[in-house]
Design brief:
Layout (H helix, E strand, L loop, with lengths): L1 H11 L6 H5 L3 E6 L2 E5 L3 H16 L12 H12 L6 H4 L3 E4 H8 L9 H17 L5 E5 L5 H14 L1 H13 L2 H14 L6 H11 L3 H5 L5 H19 L5 E3 L4
Parallel strand pairs: 2-4
Antiparallel strand pairs: 1-2, 1-5, 3-4
Helix pairs in contact: 3-6, 3-7, 8-9, 8-11, 8-13, 9-13, 10-11, 11-13
């Protein structure tokens, strides 16, 4: 079973997949102005490509966030923190989103002896986008499909970064949101494992595109009323920002 193979790579820290075995699962799409998405239906391939830069960007672990780290160390920290025997990153996290400045800061400074084949796949993708963006900032998403709620959630993050008007409206409603709703949402988001600096962004993404299971189970009072307010803003921008036909782009492997 293919997932077992991925787990074996991780547990033995023997990251040696042949790139061509995995690159044919990966498709790159230009989804909106300066917004790109890696579409990969396999959860583990997608997660391993994004793991290093995503944790560099918003890890809950102080010894990981904003730092270059050994994958072996991260695996140990992750398993110990969540009390797990196996490394379940690929099944714990489904969607990914990273701004270009953080993405490049991370991936272009990985020590040469630490680069694994999933890192090489990501670096090839970054270089392909950089050529086409010609110096402009961009946002990269990681999803399984281009027509589901996962894309919506990650696209909310992309618009928060690329559209100043959208960010301003969402920050305003974050400020106006009922304190009980906001406090309970922030508490849950933090427990999910997000860093503090992304709380406003995660708040608007969850509120506008759908709550996580734990958030729903918390029975937050009047949350549906506030979700609709966030959703109205999201719908207004999403309908204008998502390309009706995202353009598939060949990656320069």
């Amino acid at each position: 079973m293919i997932i077992k193979k991925y787990k074996l790579f991780l547990e033995e820290l023997n990251m040696r997949p042949e790139s061509d075995l995995f690159s044919n699962q990966i498709e790159l799409f230009h989804c909106g102005d300066h917004i790109w998405a890696i579409k990969c239906p396999d959860d583990y391939t997608r997660a391993l490509m994004f793991m290093r830069p995503q944790e560099y960007y918003e890890s809950a672990f102080e010894e990981i966030i904003g730092k270059q780290f050994k994958v072996s160390n991260f695996v140990d920290i992750y398993k110990q923190h969540y009390g797990k025997q196996e490394f379940t990153y690929g099944s714990d996290w489904s969607g990914f989103n990273i701004p270009s400045n953080i993405l490049e800061e991370c991936m272009f400074n990985v020590p040469e002896d630490e680069i694994n084949n999933w890192d090489k796949l990501m670096i090839s993708t970054i270089n392909t986008i950089k050529e086409l963006e010609k110096g402009h900032n961009y946002y990269l998403l990681g999803v399984d499909e281009l027509d589901n709620t996962l894309l919506e959630h990650e696209f909310a993050h992309a618009m928060f970064y690329t559209l100043p008007e959208y960010k301003a409206e969402m920050m305003k409603i974050n400020d106006e949101c009922d304190p009980i709703v906001k406090d309970m949402m922030y508490k849950c988001i933090t427990e999910y494992g997000y860093a503090d600096h992304v709380l406003p962004d995660e708040m608007q993404a969850y509120m506008s595109t759908g709550l996580g299971r734990k958030m729903t189970e918390m029975n937050i009072p009047d949350v549906e009323v506030w979700m609709q307010k966030y959703r109205n803003i999201f719908d207004n921008y999403y309908s204008k920002s998502l390309y009706s036909q995202p353009k598939k782009t060949d990656i320069n492997w």
